[in-house]
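During the second year of the project, the team shifted from modelling isolated chains to modelling whole assemblies. The rationale, set out in the original proposal, was that interfaces cannot be judged from single-chain predictions alone. As a representative example for this report, we include one of the complexes processed in the last quarter. Its constituent sequences, exactly as entered into the pipeline, are reproduced here:
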Amino acid sequence: MSPRLVKSGGWLVVGCLAVAIWLFAHSSTYWLGVLTLALLIGTVAQSWNLMAGWAGQWSIAQMAFFGLGAYTSGIGLQRWGIPLFAGLFIGGFVAAAAAGIVGVISLRLRGHYFSLVTFMLIFALGPLFLYFTSVTGGGNGLATPVGLTNDIWKLQFASDEGYFLLSLAVAIFATAVVFLISRSRMGLLLRTIRADEDAARTVGIRTLRLKVITFMVAGFLAGLAGTAYLATYNLIDTTTAFGFSEALEPVIGGILGGPGFLFGGIVGELILQPLESEVNTLFGASTFGAESLVYGVCLMFVVLVIPEGILSRLDRVRKRVLARTAGAAAPPAADSVTGYDHLAATATADAVGPE
Amino acid sequence: MSVLPGVLLSAVLLAAVYYLVALGLNIIFGVLDIVNFAHGALVLVGAYFSYELWAKLGLSVWLTVPIVMVGLALFGIGLYAGYLRFITPQPLVRMLGLIGVSLVIDSILLAVFGANFESEGGLKSSTVVSGVAIPTTAFVACGIAVVIGLITLVALRYTRAGSAIRAIIDDRTSAQLCGINDAWLTMAAFAIGCGLAGAGGTMVAATNTFGQGTDQTYAVIAFSVVILGGLGDLAGGALAALIIALAYSVVGAYSSASFIDPVIFVIVLATLVLRPRGLLGGGRV
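Output from the structure prediction step:
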């Protein structure tokens, strides 16, 4: 949501929604579980959002950093007894380092290369983690001991409620990071890169360094979510971390919610995860690739109908209402500065043809 | 006894098929400026299509090649005219749309054909070269792939439509100003790319087992070939295909198959650092 929305009481709406989600989550154990997962994947979607919505770089590998974070903290716990709370940050830093290496190489080039390389990253990491069975647990995945008492240091809780709070904390942290970056000078520079990278370089912005730093922050956030996932389910496997349709979850959620909007990833996952869960209950999980089908149809539909995301639509409605109540003339058509303006800008440029 | 000659020969034979698949991807990229993330899925569709024609209608394996190519080209036209055209003309958004298409194709194929791996029996007869069994069909597949690839390249170079497509790859606006109807040719290029993916699929079906996951294998192969050769560089892909095929065969023969994709990934990263425009330097950045 836009900074302007903040001024016009947008936080009140956010607060009401949060309370609604809170009450909904506590309506049953099923919904508590679904919303916990939605918040965890939503955090990854926020890391995607940071890269896509602000820097204009579409990563497909955010789930791989999620996996790296989870595996790092899991292996740390298993081998050296490092408690998960510390693993949370160690995993995040390892994921950030991996993002730094991949980013330095692939972000020197433009969008396509970055997306291609991140796509290939998930296929490169999967087999490796399967191969080194003695360290990663191979196909069975890496399991951590289940703690039945509340222990914040081990990130183990007596009830599902605790894990919901953990995922909520991680999601709030990620959103806060996105918020701080978007309001800072860095956010402004990133938006400049997104709008026109050549122009940004011309005026002296160090585009590569900024993009890599942002990618590392995004990797860190995804890594945090990974450890929180491990703490919640006590298991991480290669399908969850490096599977293809799993890798697309945060991408679909992010684009559904609205890239470049503060709550984009969270909102997207709060829609996508319950939907997927319901479909799985209806057809039985992964019997004939129901999950793939849901994601595929979602992606095709979203891209076709609301490529700028749900929040952008809501934002436009809000502006229209504001304009009408103020009695002013029609608001500007493009969601300039706040929204998905690069899409509108490139759309007109591309109407002639891709350069 | 060294198995190296056999490994190298099988790599060369594979390279032709890889090049064919990557050529289709590269043409689509050049003309539409989008990476066809559904390319691997189209290869798998081609493989199943060929398999069905062979198993149900009893057609010769090689006779299925033109049929599958035409079928996939028509599918490409349908996909472009019925879906892709209506997406916001922003490359990354369209790319995500194609990922959606690949997921849908994937789950439909899984629902129809199941998770078992199929084979057209090409593996039954094989030629043994220094201890490495190479399916006899691989030689024919390589020959056909080379012929199809050459026809495509010659057509792009010497026909009017081919020149027009190359002009669009070069500079769409100037091409339009020269009176080239780019709308039709864009669709044609997409259809050709899909047809080539289908042709690649028939080769895969003829020479190997295939099934769920084959699409992603070939997506990774095609993407790495295109990056190594240079996005938009049609000729550079041949050398790149050879390198990727070598990596595939050598790593597979001397080490674990688990290391194939990581090794290819490292090769791709190295290429991006050392030769970002592709091996021959003809790609765009």
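The longest helix of chain A spans residues 207-233. Confidence is low (pLDDT under 50) at residues 333-355 of chain A.
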